[in-house]
Amino acid sequence: MFKALSRISRRRALQGAAALLVVSGLLMWWLLPIGPSSPRGSVTFSTGVRTGVYQLYGQLLKPTLAHDLPGVRIELQPSEGSQQNLARVATGKADFTIATADAIAKYVEDGKPGADRLRGCARLYDDYAQLVVDDGSTVQRTRDLRHKRVAVGQPGSGVRLIAERTLRAAGLDPQKDITPVPAGIDTSPGLLESGKIDAFFWSGGLPTDAVRDLAARHPIRLVPLDDLVTKLHAAGGTTRYYRSAVMPADAYRQARNGGPVSTIAVANVLVTTDREDAKLTEGFTRSVILSRDRIGRQVHAAQLVDVRTAIYTDPLKLHEGARRYYRSVKP
Questions:
Q1: Apex 225 CA angle, 221 and 230, nearest 5
Q2: Could you give the CA distance from residue 47 to residue 79 in angstroms, rounded to a whole number?
Q3: pLDDT for 156-191, tens place per residue?
Q4: Which H or E run contains 122?
Q5: Cα separation of 274 and 294, whole Å?
Q6: Nearest of 281, 251, 215, 290 to residue 129 by alpha carbon
Q7: Which DSSP symbol is given to 239?
Q8: CA 295, CA 300: separation in Å to the nearest integer?
Q9: Residue 46, SS3?
Q10: Half-sphere exposure (CA, 13 Å, Cβ side) for 191?
């Protein structure tokens, strides 16, 4: 009898141990990251001038990226703008950036280092070309800038590219017919306010804080640029990325125009290279798209980011990681 009881006890003990092993195995499976590991490492995001929209966008995006990609350390790197951003990413000095479609197309068309490796992640919002003058200025159109001191943006900026093309479309030589000043949005408002320049070009999302703040303390006016779109398109090549657009009256309420201003717009694209890990790029793209509403409360242009149009990253091919994200949310 005792032998029978002993056999039953051993059997039950073995059954209990087996059950415990199963439960332990299931618990370990649930707790441990057995699936593909999350991206890890360091990522450099090249932004823009410190008072520009690119830099503000990067600052607002950084905490979202840190939350969504906890194993990745995000470093923001200020720059002169689109042209410098592209050079950094294409040559491996940065991992992600934002650049205008015209600057991207020119970089590729010129065959600059690493151009063939550039890839798009998302079409973001449009930049609006802005030509700012004192309210009392005689400048009514771009052609009136002849013999004026004009801030045309820093050498590595998208502003410089569109400013020079706009001046040429207006029949002006950017080097001979004006006095070009290599200043960006971080210094141009102060230069105009102090009378050291007569006008400045800017290309950015609406509204740009530096222009809005200038309008609040100094009488300014925005010069219409819509008369130049046809001439820009006639120049061919990468100028096809420009389109007619209207800055609404409430973009800069305190500017002295008194209504909407017709101008030129060009799309911004989130850019990386084919070197970037697909899983990381998928996560980065997801964070950018899903942060639209939060960022849009401070960068109003970001409210226009839309998953339905973000996939159109012309003139760049879509990165495989970004493609995976868009496939995952396709209805």
A1: 175
A2: 6
A3: 999 999 999 999 999 999 999 999 999 999 999 999
A4: strand 118-134
A5: 29
A6: 251
A7: G
A8: 8
A9: strand
A10: 21
